[in-house]
Amino acid sequence: MSKAAGPANRKKTPSIKRRGRPPIPHTLIRAGVVLTPEHEIRKGAVLIHGRRIIAVGRDKEIAEAVRHVHDRSGRFEMDVVDAPNLVAVPGFVDIHQHGGGGADYMDGTVAAVRTILETHVRRGTTSIVPTLMTASRPALRKAIAAVDAARPRRKKGSVSSSEPIGPDILGIHLEGPFISKERCGAQPASAVRRIDEAEIREYLRISRTPVRIVTLAPELRGAPALIKFLVRRGIVAAAGHSDAGFDEAIHGFDAGITHGAHLFNAMRGFEHREPGLAGALLLNEHASVEIIADGRHLHPATVFLVLQAKPEDKVVLVTDATRNACTGKDPLQTAEGRLYGSNLSLLQALRNIMNWSGWSLEDVLPLATINPARVLGLEKRKGAIVPGADADIVLLDYKLRVRDVWCAGRRVNFSNKR
Ligand SMILES: [Zn+2]
Ligand SMILES: [Zn+2]
After folding, report:
1. Are 235 and 214 in contact (CB under 8 A)?
2. Over the stretch 291-321, which tens digit does the pLDDT of each residue have?
3. Same topology between domain 9-89+388-411 and domain 92-375
4. How many Å lie between the centroid of ligand 1 and the Cα of residue 323?
5. Which of 104, 320, 392, 404 is catalytic?
6. Is the distance from CB of 200 to CB of 178 less than 8 angstroms?
7. Which ligand is closest in space to the CA of residue 322?
8. 339-356: average pLDDT
9. Can you tell me whether residue 173 is helix, strand or coil?
10. Minimal CA–CA distance to 99: which of 310, 323, 393?
11. CATH code reported for the domain at 92-375
12. What residues does each domain of the chain span?
């Protein structure tokens, strides 16, 4: 990528319009480099139709595709974005995020959800799994209702211009309430409770937004049955906020645990005579793990240890961002001085790992794009610039600043700074 990035140039091709419904617009993004993230395409281009990517490749190849589209459809309208000094990457996917911009999903209001989405989309995050922490049942119901109400209603294949442009809410992550009191971290121990499948059933019933991940402590009584229930429903069962020893963790894997929430944080750590849940997650090549790369939750050396130990597609960057994220304020802490989530954006997490390691963007990008999408089984739709995927695209400059963002084919307006 070369320097001296200017704002992306925009020009519109002449449109050929006929009577009837307006044509679904095409957008052509030409970038100095496209990171898909599995391939690096120099002088690349991405062709978008409506909310989806329909072609990606070398600029010259895509010019052919454009001609083809032009011939077949009588009606054609296309925005062209020329960004020769920028890099196009898939929008980031955050599967563990509580808030940012001064708001928390537990505020339980649509305004709070919108504030958080807007805060993170400006930093390149285009898919989010709002994470609800341990709280009373009424508080969780209220938070679920707020996420439901704020979630754009999208029809298949089409984009309604009346919907707000913002990140896709992929589902809900319930972090608790069935966790270990010993390892509850900054979550309120008073709201931690015994496993009750009926409570989860209620949330599944009332929530229009799918519940995608439930983080629980696998050593709790009734955990194996609940884990099996979640897996049958296609929900990711994650181990976290847990005091499980190595054997208890293995039992959890046997029941269906496939993911570890913020590896090493709020769980029994690695000890050479009792490797604990952390050791079990590191060893299990089928389990994915989250890491919080803010330099506070984990020493950079621990991050490298995880990256060396785990298969490369099983490590996922998450923010675990809380209210103060992206506000310029200090990260939240409990009265006892415990970390209360982070102030990260996923973009900052990527920058941190690059700064610690000297690795390239291409090396680290999967950790915040395709890898988290894989955890949810959404890798064909999210976290990659491939035909058929949602057109969630971020243009970055050579200093890794966000210059432009598309969410499902629609360009985010950056005019009012937050
Ligand atoms: Zn947590
Ligand atoms: Zn969390």
Report:
1. yes
2. 999 999 999 999 999 999 999 999 999 999 9
3. no
4. 14
5. 320
6. no
7. 2
8. 96
9. strand
10. 323
11. 3.20.20.140
12. 9-89+388-411, 92-375
**Is the full-model pTM beyond 0.90?**
yes
Instruction: Write out pLDDT tens, residues 249-261.
Output: 999 999 999 999 9
**Continuous segment of H or E residues that includes residue 127:** strand 125-133
Q: Based on the residue annotation, tell me whether 320 is a catalytic residue of this protein.
A: yes
Distance 186 CA to ligand 2 centre (A): 9
Per-residue DSSP letter, 91:
P
- Cα 195 vs. chain centroid, distance in angstroms? 27
Cα of 262 to ligand 1 centre, how many Å?
7
In the predicted structure, residue 19 carries a pLDDT above the cut 60: no
Cα distance between residue 267 and residue 260, in whole Å: 10
In the CATH hierarchy, which fold is given to the domain comprising 9-89+388-411? Urease, subunit C; domain 1 (2.30.40)
Q: 154 CA to middle of ligand 2, Å?
A: 28
Both tokens assigned to 284: 């299990």
Alpha carbon of 319 to ligand 2 centroid (Å):
9
Residues within 5 A (CB) of ion ligand 2: 175, 320
